[in-house]
Amino acid sequence: MSQSLGRGAYPNTRLRRLRAQDFSRRLVRETQLSCDDLILPLFVIEGRNETQKVASMPGVERLSVDLLARKAKLLQQLGIPAVALFPVVDPSAKSDSASAAHDADGLAQRAVRELKDAAPELGVITDVALDPFTSHGQDGLMDHSGYIVNDETVEVLVQQALSHAAAGADIVAPSDMMDGRIGAIRQALEGAGHTNTLIMSYAAKYASAYYGPFRDAVGSAGNLKGGSKASYQMDPANTDEAIHECALDLQEGADMVMVKPGMPYLDIVRRVKDELRVPTFAYQVSGEYAMHCTAFENGWLQREAVILESLLAFKRAGADGILTYFAEEAAQLLQG
Ligand code: PBG
């Protein structure tokens, strides 16, 4: 008691002294948010000069490859380090085997090539998962009982990751949550000579209801058979399991791990960073984006301040970077 009071007792200690002026607040600030922390998810569609609004994600547009390439140049100029690409394919390209996922000339693969051509310094992250390509909207292959089979799915994911790397993807990011996929993908990348292709593992990905607007955006919501992804994504009640997942993925060859969703899961970000001490990313997902936008549109929250505060909170929790639909706007705010 006397120990803590010795240093801390009022009026010797007045914590408001350091808060009184801007210069001293800046001097003692523990975390900073910068453009270097931001990754922008992008939705890509077929066609030319084509844009489509996403109803549940105000301000987010799906873009055809040519418009995507143009946008990439702007993002590179803004100082955003990387984008995460999500293809939105026509229902006719969906099948039970998800074979369009690893088409060397598929939408994602073409988009990667165009992006790297237009903005070579902008990192390109691809989504490794089958949900845009399966007729049932699940992330893996389904057996007769409706169960998502693990090992057969991993074989397709490996082909998909290889096709992304061959197209020039800098980072492949498996978001499917199958067991063993990181090791299988790493081994295949090594075998094909893609030794510097990075793997960002969606390691602690929860079976969350916050993904709803994203499933609208990629057109997998309407057809999501079974509704739930709980047989492969993590139970929101768990935390030790997140450490287990991340540790395994690192052991299998992931270069960085991700926690997803973001704001409701900052306790997981903090644990992963403290216990594993590796590059740790977090995804402020579509539902979090939609919630914010609704409040902004109604004038209930102040847009710019809340965007920056929400992203700073990720940094304070230990995230090295954040996937966020606010990335472009946040970068503009941080620059300006
Ligand atoms: C699926 C995938 C999802 C997201 C990224 N990849 C949705 C899901 O698992 O159903 C969610 C992103 C978001 O909500 O913003 N492979």
Rg is 21 Å
CATH architecture verdict: Alpha-Beta Barrel
CATH homology-level superfamily: Aldolase class I
Low-confidence stretches: none
* Cα distance spanning the termini: 47 Å
- Total domains, how many? 1
What's the rounded overall pLDDT mean?
95
Please count the helical segments: 13
Describe, in plain words, how this protein is organized in 3D.
It holds the Pfam family ALAD. GO terms for molecular function: porphobilinogen synthase activity. Keywords: Heme biosynthesis, Lyase, Porphyrin biosynthesis. Its EC number is 4.2.1.24. 40% of the residues lie in helices and 17% in strands. It is built from 13 helices and twelve strands. The protein has an eight-stranded parallel barrel, surrounded by nine helices. The radius of gyration is 21 Å and the shape is globular. The mean pLDDT is 95. It starts with a helix and ends with a helix. The protein is α/β, with parallel strands linked by helices and 336 residues long. It has a single domain, classed as Aldolase class I (TIM Barrel). Helix 4 (65-78) packs across helix 5 (107-118), helix 5 runs parallel beside helix 6 and helix 9 crosses helix 10 (266-276). The structure holds ligand PBG.
